[in-house]
Amino acid sequence: MEKNLLVSASPHIRDHITTRRIMLDVVIALTPAALSGIYFFGWKAALLIAVCIVSCVVFEYIMVKIRKKPLSIGDCSAIVTGLLLALSLPPGLPVWMAILGCFIAIVVIKQLFGGIGYNFINPALGARVFMIISFAQAMTTWVEPGLDAVSSATPLAIMKQAEAGAVLPDMSDMLLGNIGGCIGETSVIALLIGAVWLLARTVITWHIPVFYLGSVALLTWMLGGEGVFNGNPLLHLVTGGLLLGAVYMATDYTTTPMTKKGSIIFAIGCGVVTSVIRLYGALPEGVSFAILFMNLLVPLIDRYTIPKNFGGAIKK
Amino acid sequence: MLRKKTFKQGATLPHIKNTAQDQTILMPAPKTIVVPMLQHIGAPCEPTVNKGDHVKVGQVIGDTDKYVSAPIHSGVSGKVVKMDIILTYAGNNVPVMIIESDGENEVYEGVRPPKIGNLDEFVKAIRASGLVGLGGAGFPTHVKLNLPNEANIDTLIVNAVECEPYITSDNREALEHTRHVVRGMQIIGEYLKIPNIIIGVEDNKPESIEILSQAVKGTKIKVQPLITRYPQGAEKMLISALTGRKVPSGGLPSDVGTIVLNITTVSFISKYLETGMPLVKRRVTVDGTAVKNPGNVEVVLGTTIRELLDFCGGVTEEIKKVIMGGPMMGIANYNIDMPILKQNNAILALGEELGDPPDETPCIRCGRCITRCPMSLMPVYLDLYSRRRDLDQLHKYHIMDCMECGSCTYNCPAKRYLVQSIRMGKTLIKQQPKVKGGK
Ligand code: SF4
Ligand code: SF4
Questions:
Q1: What is the pLDDT along chain A (316 residues), one digit of tens a residue?
Q2: Does A309 contact B404 at a Cβ distance shorter than 8 Å?
Q3: Are A51 and A98 in contact (CB under 8 A)?
Q4: Which of A291, B221, B385, B391 lies at 20 to 30 Å from B346 by C-alpha?
């Protein structure tokens, strides 16, 4: 007699892709941005990144133990949340605030709603917005890159308030990341390298970033300056964490629509809300709020973008 | 060469066509054959011979007067030694006839080329041959050919796609029996008065494309290369790839003026009209990591998997899983003493390397299942609502359109058992008394 044969349902082969591999790819993609943040902002940035990753993983561990769920640390999603949150914090933020942010992200937003796949807003973004509201001062205290932490203003704030004497930094500094801002949002080049990685590994498709950035560019160009079609879309594209948001946060699977069509609607929505906040709102920067707002509309978008089944009758 | 075509969505799979170059080997008839009375979709057959009777090769041993069914013939000459019941891999108890061969392989007197004058006789002859879809579906061919009068068929599609990994038996048919493939198409085209004939082949079989293109020169048959993509061999996908037409949900190929037949099925028709020998043998691809000498083997139907594997040099390691058919839609067998059936195009014996079925983790809403589903469904919701037993939602998301191709499950990073729960959902719906008419 041979050993019992394994009987299981088809298909009998699976692709190699796993949740863990996807998350690790995101971590890899964010590494250039993290490194450039550390390079420009120094050890404080490194400390914040480390603290956020560790506390997210620890919170995740504690929560799955409490909820008696299978251990999900291995899927690496907590690392992604920690890293993303750190990269969207100002480099000078006190450590305890960062830990509180991680608590909000993992415990409140992610685990209390059921863990990976069940949260309805992006944990890192949700935590960031919570912190902007709670610690308005600390969250908007920017430092000039370099060792002497001179407080400075972000390019968007400069544009908005036209602070006396403040001038916009060079475009080349903005591309490299040599400007004031959050740890991971300033270096456009580093973020683009990561974006290419995500696209090449098919973790994301081009739809959301392109439609998001495109709609912001269009709107800020049309309405951003004196009269129409006189704005400076390029400046808007490279600042204020737009790239970080469009490539890494608006593409989060769980909190965005699942269909192509839905994704495009979502991305354009993000673009519109971001532009409106930037051009007319009180806040200098609208990416976090825009994505968060659109996160909330995802169930609605999903409901109205059910694909037509193959050979199905056209119904409304 | 013609511009390659394909259908929308679907999955990219490894090809693993190890046996594509392996000439078919004939396996001698085994000592005993085990012949189930149900080897097709439709009504099972009743035995037409009794225990103790002597039968010959090609003799009818099971038949029924139900229309959607196909008679069953003996593949050996010898004595019916036992009537039994087996539990098939599909989960139903089916009567089987066990025939002990006398080693003579004497051909039954009734085996002679059928006389055919018109379409009606053609369809009758096909039924008598016991032919079913040899590509894996097992649907009685005469039923497909017997079109209602109002059906306006303008295209005969021959399916040489063979989109499942490993399997190469149709490929070998194209290469080894090219003449019969072409002749079969012409015969069907003539009797059914179908103006267009297209044979679709995926571009991972360049030899087949080449040989067939040569062979159809001077006929109206068109050989259409297709970009390799799973599940292109599914009828609806193939029709869409070749003609751009979409079979309506719940409909049949004839609704869009087409009829789809597998290449080996077509070739068999030509052979049968020449010799009159009914379907008692077929080519099976034997492959998988546990098989010593993988290859394409022509076996007498009713040969057990065990004998077939022995013929292929036995196994090199303990078998972990035996699949009848391809790795995407084939069925795992619980026992290697099961016989080869008419529709079995492959036997895959997989060893340790296969690994265990993956653990399921929560859905991360990545949408991959949706962008891969050839039927444009939302497998993620079908999974959710099947598990919740929410039949209304299942109808809303068109669960009955799912053809269980497995593209969604294959690509799911969370390793959800989507097809499995969709099957459960379908079963729930079928058990439900029909309240609102269909769909
Ligand atoms: S839902 Fe059905 S038809 Fe669609 S990919 Fe999954 S198994 Fe195939
Ligand atoms: S592929 Fe899997 S993880 Fe992705 S949406 Fe579908 S079921 Fe969820």
A1: 456 888 888 899 999 999 999 999 999 999 999 999 999 888 889 999 999 999 999 999 999 999 888 877 888 999 999 999 999 999 889 999 999 999 999 999 999 988 888 898 999 999 999 998 888 888 877 766 654 445 566 767 666 655 444 566 777 777 777 777 888 888 889 999 999 999 999 999 999 999 999 999 999 898 887 777 888 888 888 887 899 999 999 999 999 999 999 999 999 999 999 999 988 887 766 899 999 999 999 999 999 999 989 988 644 3
A2: no
A3: yes
A4: B221
To the nearest whole angstrom, how far is the Cα of A51 from the nearest Cα of chain B?
26
Q: Which ligand 1 atom lies nearest to the CA of residue B382?
A: 1
Specify the residue with its C-alpha closest to ligand 2, atom 7: B380
Residue type, A308: K
Asked whether residue B144 is domain-assigned, the answer is yes
Considering only CA atoms, which residue is closest to atom 2 of ligand 1?
B402
Distance CA B185, CA B200 (A): 13
Q: Is residue B407 in contact with ligand 1, taking CB distance under 6 Å?
A: yes
* Cβ–Cβ gap A311/B414 under 8 Å: no
B267 lies in which domain range?
119-275
DSSP characters over A245-271: IIIIITT-STTS-SSHHHHHHHHHHHH
CA-proximal residue: ligand 1, atom 1 (nearest): B379
Among candidate residues B225, B259, B275, the one where a domain is terminated:
B275
Overall number of domains in chain B? 2
Q: Which residue of B has its CA nearest to A203?
A: B366
Domain ranges of chain A: 19-302
CA distance A270 to A212: 6
Residues B123 and B268 in one domain: yes
B405 and B265 share one domain: no
Token pair listed for A153: 């203003």
Closest ligand to C-alpha of residue B403 is 1
* A19-302, CATH topology level: Ammonium transporter fold (1.10.3430)
| B84 occurs within a structural domain | no
Spacing, Cα B394 to ligand 1 middle (Å): 13
ipTM greater than 0.90, yes or no? no
Q: Considering only CB atoms, which chain A residues are within 8 Å of B350?
A: 12
The domain spanning residue B260 has which CATH number? 3.40.50.11540
**What pTM value is reported for the model?**
0.90
Decide if B386 is inside a domain.
yes
Among candidate residues B235, B258, B275, the one where a domain is terminated: B275
C-beta of B384 in contact with ligand 2 (< 6 A): no
**B258 and B384 fall within a common domain:** no
Neighbours of B418 (CB within 10 A): 30
